[in-house]
């Protein structure tokens, strides 16, 4: 079951990047992140009430709550950097860098959680995955959808914070129902996202968002919510060093939709990199 939910997480995560890109064409990325986080929060709490885990809030240990909060902070930082990078660069260039968090996550869980079964296979898969990522993040001339700016710096920071998110979340949801953990973490992200919006004085830009971009922001929030729910169920019940790489296969969905929607084509070198990313992930998943 956890393998199925990990795959579903990857699918919805892939949709998120494309929908978000459509929603931040003319909308500030910080404002868009805050708005879509609100959608994720509503979606998350609906799921909490559906599964009936709301009554278990009082039973959450202080240590679990602490790590959930830290995970939420890391997630918020990752999101802010990620969507800032998306607003500046091509989807097909930003996403592979963000997915490099897989390498750090796998190494961390092997060290911290001692998931050493089939260690040689996992390390080989991670090496292939890493090589594929480097092939995909090649430099090329900017496309029409790419703006000037330090998008790569934001993409790298997004990957670092995303890796921390997986580790902190694994610790925090050890004795917490996964839907409830997602809702609590999202609340932290929401506070952080809106705090940045008000700190930068961007709240007035909400009124200028077009209806079309507002719809895409909301849809990206729903896709993110669905991805999170499946992801943290998989992390709680499965092998983290396998779940994380599978989730990163969302790049397949992202590349497909970015080609259809934004006409962002991959070079032969980038296609080889994508193939290696898929091969490395499948290698780790098959030997789980």
pLDDT averaged over residues = 83
Order of helices and strands: HHHHHHHHHHHH
Low-confidence stretches: 140-148
Rg on CA atoms, Å: 18 Å
Strand content: under 5%
Task: Calculate the terminal CA-CA distance, rounded to whole Å.
Answer: 13 Å
Helix content: over 70%
Query: If helices are DSSP runs of H or I spanning 4 or more residues, what is the number of helices?
Result: 12
Give a short overview.
The protein has helices spanning 2-23, 29-51, 62-88, 91-99, 101-112, 119-136, 151-172, 178-199, 211-237, 240-247, 250-262, 268-286. The protein is mostly helical.
Describe the structure.
By secondary structure, the chain is an all-alpha fold. The protein has 12 helices and no strands. Helix 2 crosses helix 9. The longest helix has 27 residues. The protein is globular, with a radius of gyration of 18 Å. The chain starts with a helix and ends with a helix. About 3% of the residues have low confidence.
Write the layout of secondary structure elements.
Blueprint: H1 2-23, H2 29-51, H3 62-88, H4 91-99, H5 101-112, H6 119-136, H7 151-172, H8 178-199, H9 211-237, H10 240-247, H11 250-262, H12 268-286
């Amino acid at each position: 079951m956890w393998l199925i939910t990990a795959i579903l997480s990857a699918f919805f995560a892939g949709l998120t990047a494309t929908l978000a890109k459509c929603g931040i064409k003319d909308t500030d990325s910080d404002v868009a992140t805050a708005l879509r986080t609100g959608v994720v929060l509503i979606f998350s709490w609906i799921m909490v009430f559906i599964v009936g885990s709301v009554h278990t809030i009082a039973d959450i240990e202080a240590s679990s709550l602490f790590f959930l909060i830290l995970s939420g902070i890391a997630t918020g930082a990752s999101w802010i950097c990620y969507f800032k990078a998306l607003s500046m660069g091509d989807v097909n260039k930003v996403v592979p860098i963000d997915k490099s968090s897989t390498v750090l996550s796998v190494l961390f869980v092997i060290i911290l959680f001692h998931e050493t079964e089939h260690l040689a296979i996992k390390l080989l898969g991670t090496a292939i995955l890493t090589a594929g990522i480097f092939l995909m993040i090649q430099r090329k001339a900017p496309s029409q959808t790419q703006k000037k700016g330090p998008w790569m710096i934001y993409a790298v920071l997004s990957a670092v914070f995303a890796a921390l998110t997986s580790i902190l979340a694994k610790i925090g949801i050890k004795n917490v129902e996964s839907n409830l953990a997602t809702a609590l973490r999202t609340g932290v992200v929401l506070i952080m996202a809106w705090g940045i919006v008000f700190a930068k004085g961007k709240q007035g830009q909400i009124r200028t968002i077009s209806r079309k971009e507002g719809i895409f922001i909301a849809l990206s929030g729903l896709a993110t919510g669905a991805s999170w729910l499946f992801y943290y169920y998989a992390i709680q019940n499965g092998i983290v060093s396998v779940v994380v790489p599978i989730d990163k296969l969302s790049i397949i969905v992202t590349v497909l939709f970015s080609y259809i929607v934004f006409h962002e084509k991959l070079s032969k070198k980038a296609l080889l990199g994508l193939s290696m990313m898929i091969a490395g992930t499948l290698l780790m998943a098959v030997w789980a």
